Amino acid sequence: MKQAGFFDVEERLARLSGLGDQLEAFSRTVDFEVFRPELDKALAYSDGSKGGRPPFDPVLMFKILVIQTLNNLSDERTEYLINDRLSFMRFLGLGLSERVPDAKTIWLFRERLTQAGAIDILFNRFDATLRNAGYLPMSG
Predict the structure, then answer these.
(1) HEC states along 17-51?
(2) Alpha-carbon distance 27 to 130, whole Å?
(3) How far apart are CA 9 and CA 121, in angstroms?
(4) Which residues, including other chains, have CB under 8 Å from residue 81's CB and lie 6 or more apart?
(5) Distance from the Cα of residue 44 to its chain's centroid
(6) Contact status, residue 40 vs residue 61, Cβ threshold 8 Å
(7) C-alpha–C-alpha distance, residues 81 and 103, integer Å
(8) Nearest residue to 56 via CA among 77, 81, 82
(9) What are the residue ranges spanned by the domains of the chain?
(10) Which one, out of 51, 62, 90, 139, has a CA that is 20 to 30 A from the CA of 128?
């Protein structure tokens, strides 16, 4: 087995790009930051003054729901694949050493959006963005 090189991850990501990484295309097409105000409103996180671990970034979590929906994944499988796939990590903006939300965190995030009545609105907006860019949305 050969020793890992300094640019191995970058070379692998370049290969994935060359093979047509769908998530990379979505990153170029969709400005996920436009979803932040609606996510912040629906989630209504506290200001953190009471302490505790800060929540994951809501845009990151929404992108996880996008991955999950596009690939019809369970929460557990989503957690595993984020840890396993470079393309998922790149789409989410996560490095190899960064913390990945666990299955329960993903479930709680989706539940919170559902209870706030925001999940359908967010995905309809995402689908419209893809449709306007010439993609056929497949979420639900």
Answers:
(1) HHCCCHHHHHHHHCCHHHHHHHHHHHHCCCCCCCC
(2) 11
(3) 36
(4) 67, 71, 73, 88
(5) 19
(6) no
(7) 11
(8) 82
(9) 32-45+55-132
(10) 90
Q: How far apart are CA 139 and CA 5, in angstroms?
A: 38
Q: Phi then psi for 132, rounded to 5 degrees?
A: -65, -25
Contact 106, 112 (CB under 8 A): no
Q: Which two tokens stand for residue 113?
A: 């959006």
Average pLDDT over residues 15-38: 89
pLDDT band per the 50, 70, 90 thresholds, residue 25? confident
Largest CA distance in the chain: 51
Per the structure block, which two tokens stand in for 121?
Answer: 């609105």
**43-102 pLDDT per residue, tens:** 987 666 666 678 899 999 999 999 999 999 999 999 999 999 999 999 999 998 999 999
